[in-house]
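User: Hey, quick favor. My workstation is busy. Could you predict this chain's structure for me?
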Amino acid sequence: MNKPHEVFELLGRIESPADLRALERRELPQLCNELREFLLQSVARTGGHLSSNLGTVELTVALHYVFNTPDDRLVWDVGHQTYAHKVLTGRRDGMDRLRMRGGLAGFPRRDESEYDTFGVAHSSTSISAALGMAVAARRMNHPRRVVAIIGDGAMSAGLAFEALNNAESADCDLLVILNDNDMSISPPVGALHNYLARLMSGRFYTAARRAGEKVLSAAPGMLELAKRAEEHVKGMLLPGTLFEEFGFNYLGPVDGHDVDTLTTTLHNLRNLRGLQFLHVVTRKGKGYAPAEVDPIQYHGVSKFDPGAGIVAKAVPVPAPVPGYTQVFGDWLCDIAAADTRVVGITPAMREGSGLVRFSREYPDRYFDVGIAEQHAVTFGAGLACDGMKPVIAIYSTFLQRGYDQLVHDVAIQNLPVMFAIDRGGLVGADGPTHHGALDLSYLRCVPNLTVMVPSDENETRQMLYTAYSLDTPTAVRYPRGNGPGVPVEAKMAALPVGKAEVRRRGTGIAFLAFGSMVAPCLKAAEALDATVANMRFVKPLDVDLVRELAATHGTIVTVEENVVMGGAGSAVLEALAAIGYAGKVVQLGLPDSFVEHGDPGGLLKECGLDSDGILGQVRARM
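Assistant: No problem, here it is.
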């Protein structure tokens, strides 16, 4: 359990950053230790993101100590590293319900706190958003400072570099902090680098440089020579040439766990104008040995005992039916063994997308392109152009970032790129930024694209093989976690494209269920003696079966784990309208609103998409 607040001598007194700024600087190391311990105990009790948050304790403390938040703007990237920020901004007591229904969100949200200046959860947005805020401050003649905090992994996305490229022409004051906790893009951190950062961010260095420029301006040749000499010296000592080419004054690298150095450097930077770039080196999992050793395992955790660490669960005997993600990972390895043209692509989600085994068995055919979804899609298109069979493993919510490329680079050219879309539907604790609620709507309108939704584990394997067998763009969309428990057959057979199957025959009411909704519809149908069709294909829709069921049933009910608007049910309505169906139609699906975070089962129940909810909604509309 979390320790009582009174045990944390300093942290227990902080209800806002104003209380933090009232501390003496000598007290900050103790506060960091208390905050790190609080986070470890808190996340161990609730689950959540751990290693990234342990790594940003000192940086968070220093930022709120130096900057006048919330008037000064802190814009976090992704949000995996903002638990310390939440604790210091008045939400300490709410951490015991983190990521639970009705509790604190796992990411910054503007409607949760005035200190959350920008809602995030997807990567690489911070610099663009902060640049917009900095320009707004300049136009409104407001003296506030704006800071973007971005991780090294997020720097792989084109959006971050688009913002850097645009910053120089924006004519504003902006500080970008690169939290480098993984990439080897810097020399070892030490006293020399911390000294240089303090020196180069201080007033003496800035004043001396300006004075030198003034003196040398009378001799343009000498001024240019001096500038080149300065760049050359800094280039030898610091890895900042790239960022300075974008117009930023690069400083660092700084030890991100030296709160005194961070405070001094940030204080100096707050007084500088123009574009500033601070490179901070941190360690994921800092202060908790197991997380430092294996930050990936401790990136997102369930409840655990901090004393024992995460204990591997014994494999039950007999082994359970694998979850959807594992079914995909196993299938990809099997098909790669049979076809050397198959390659796997992921935008930095190897573990989450089930590609660990594939990356080990076929390293020369495994491509992690980093957080660069747009590139992942067009990269796959290029591979397909020259005879490869690319499989892009991607979360539904992340595919939204590569939608233009899906349309323009894959579908228009009718290239055989396969999308294995994980996390379709409601994902749970990560909330609205991670729910795959829109994909059936935004996919079914794309010409040339075949869209499949499996109802169980074995059907997932067969649909993946079906997609592989086609020489056109395909998408197989499946939910997170486990299915109904159908054993997976080793044999693979292509399904007839665009053909559904009737799973139960009844009278009066026909359920046209898509993907994960087949199982609850079968339960609801028992009470109604209804027909249930496993539709399998969102596109092309089985229009023949729709017509058949319309001719023999007075009520058609479409059920999908996707927003109703424009989704699979809308495709059925279009087919029914074409034949002039005069019966009753009921569309069930996710609401026209962003579903909050919480337990996936509980969220489905709230949306009326469990078996009882489906039964109740149908009865209410009869």
